[in-house]
Write the structure tokens for this entry.
Amino acid sequence: GGSLVTSPLLAQEKPGEHLTQPVIHVAKNDVPQAPIQPNHPLDPALRIAYASLQHLRSNINDYSAILIKREFVNGAVSEYEYMGVKVRNRKVSGNNLVTPFSVYMTFLKPAAMKGREVIYVENANKGKLVAHEGGMKGRFLPTVDLDPTGMLAMRGQRYPITDIGIENLVVKLIEKGERDRKHGECTVDFIQGAKISGRDCTVLSVKHPVQRPYFDFHHAQVFIDNELQIPVRYAAYSWPTAGEKAPLLEEYTYQNIKLNVGLTDADFDRDNPNYSF
């Protein structure tokens, strides 16, 4: 439904705030090519996804954003979580990892999580994330190193921190799209005129009318920022029971995105004096 677009959650930015940053070109990473033969409704969507991935890998080194997420976990939909995120995209030259995938997160809402901080850097800290709790718990619990896919780190989460970020989202969309492309029962629509926090987006809507074991969702919407050429929101819904609304599986919205802000190792260092590890 259109209600997504005008959700009060997606607060307006200050008028005139412009998010583009100068584009910095780096060595291109190989991106697999999209299928040529246009014989499945998903093909135009896959072409957009491959182009977006190429753009991310060629032109976007890092970004900061507010991530707002809700997920169906342990039988219920979580409340909205707001996180300030800094992400440095993985960069490879030949077979060498030039820049490891790096994430810093600070939780802003809800109150019980406010102040929680998490850092993950690929190939560092023996593969572990470093975290400390926020809220009341944060006052007496120590900073811990955790396996990203272990039970503690995954509590209340659908996916590990290693899956976070816009590039990972695009990779997942391509994987889902290529898998769904092997089957029929799929309708794809492009809807113009949507806005996410005042920014023009095109919505890619994918529906699988009939529930099948090989489909992940009944309906998914990808909001692509027309200027930034990257997805800024993904929402997926399961099949509704008779007369019910389609239940939410997961939704992720990136707001206040600032590209190529020049993040450094210090942004992903637990000893950063601006952090509370």
Notes: The longest strand covers residues 62-73. The mean pLDDT is 87.
